[in-house]
Amino acid sequence: MDCALGNGCREARINLYNGSSTSFEVRDMKIDRLQQASENALSLHVFVDGRYGAYSTNRLDKKELERFIRNAVDSTRYLAEDCARTLPDAALYYRGGGSDLQLRDPAFETIPPDDKLALAMHVCEEIIGRDKRIITAESSYDDSESYRYMIASNGFEGESSNSTFTLAASVSIKDDGDARPSSGWYDSALRYDRLVRDGIGAKALERALRKLGQRKIASARLPMVVDFMVSHQLLSPVINALYGSSIQQNNSFLLDRLDRKTLGEKMTLTDEPHLPQAAGARHFDSEGVATKKRSVFEAGTLHTYYIDTYYANKMGTARTIDSPSILTMLPGNKDLEKLIATLDRGILVTGFNGGNCNSTTGDFSYGIEGFLIENGQLMQPVNEMNITGNMLTLWNQLVETGNDPRTSSGWRIPSLLFDSIDFSGI
Question: Among residues 123, 217, 138, which one has the least CA distance to residue 183?
Fold first, then answer.
């Protein structure tokens, strides 16, 4: 920091990162891939004569860093002026004193590699030999830990650390003709002792076998249940439309919707950054601004955009936060099975296969797979069908939310039930 300011920076922000990870991948009970990695990096954000530049390096020798910083400052002077590029108002910074979010497992470095491999093997064992139609079974164990330190010239200093552990399985099976249905399952946790070890391979196989006999059905307008494993994918275009970059560029179907009733009554979404031992928890964002609990939607009314310093300056509006932390949707009182049981006829969506959403209009078209629902029961597996519509209309047709979000995810979105969706088939 002293070097940057001494070489002509008006302001500067520096990030230091240190991380390590391991990965064990198994295919058909044979080790397919082993990987261990560690890295250190420094990123430098410099503000020079009304210009801004961002630079990074993993060469952390002191003498090399001094030359790197001088070159960064000199290079930035060649860039175009941009008065919107500034550090945040220092009054917005996190100043410490928050609760311990317990995001790193202190036992991370003590876990033997043999135990990690054994977990991956165990997941694969739950698949191999269980059905003669199995083509390939894959499993993996992954873990990582990271430390971050950040300092800004106008008064911020902070650090964070976290760890994560993941067990996953995928399986493909032979169906009639050339069809090769596949599916997967996983569990993740911030602490090793909370990682689910049993049933992951079995669940992946169960989900693959359910797909046997997939086919299109006739086009129809039907209620749609979305599995909690993929429900976040329908929310993603909504969140993307809340970013300052989309708002400033008039590229958002939620433009000028702040504090207006926009989505349906069942849409209540909250950003909760301080949940302990939770993926996505944090006390400050990528610029050091303090996080806080925020209402994103309340009964369909939009209450916040995600606006960082740059876009706040561009638009002359207040800065909020740069991105979501932990998104929690207000749950209902039914799990996935009970939501399915409420329908005489509908479709359960278990996967999205391609498609897109127009960020300006909200019009979308997605390929889907899942199951036809009749009389509250899953009947025919379906695939190669499409849903079409508009995001504003879709979320106004949200009838009910489930009570089954994956708490291991930073987006805690449960199963969802929508009314009257256009399905295109045969």
Answer: 138
pLDDT of residue 176: 87
Which is it for strands 345-357 and 327-329: parallel, antiparallel or unpaired?
unpaired
402: β partners? 334
According to the model, what pLDDT value does residue 12 have?
A: 97
Q: How far is CA 249 from CA 70, 192, 314, in A?
A: 34, 43, 10
**pLDDT of the residue at 331:** 95
Q: What is the pLDDT of residues 313-344, one digit of tens each?
A: 999 999 999 999 999 999 999 999 999 999 99
What sign has the CA pseudo-torsion 257, 263, 265, 268?
negative
Total-model pTM: 0.93
Q: How far is residue 23 from each of residues 18, 29, 142, 144, measured CA to CA in Å?
A: 17, 16, 4, 9
Residue carrying the six token digits 């909690």: 228
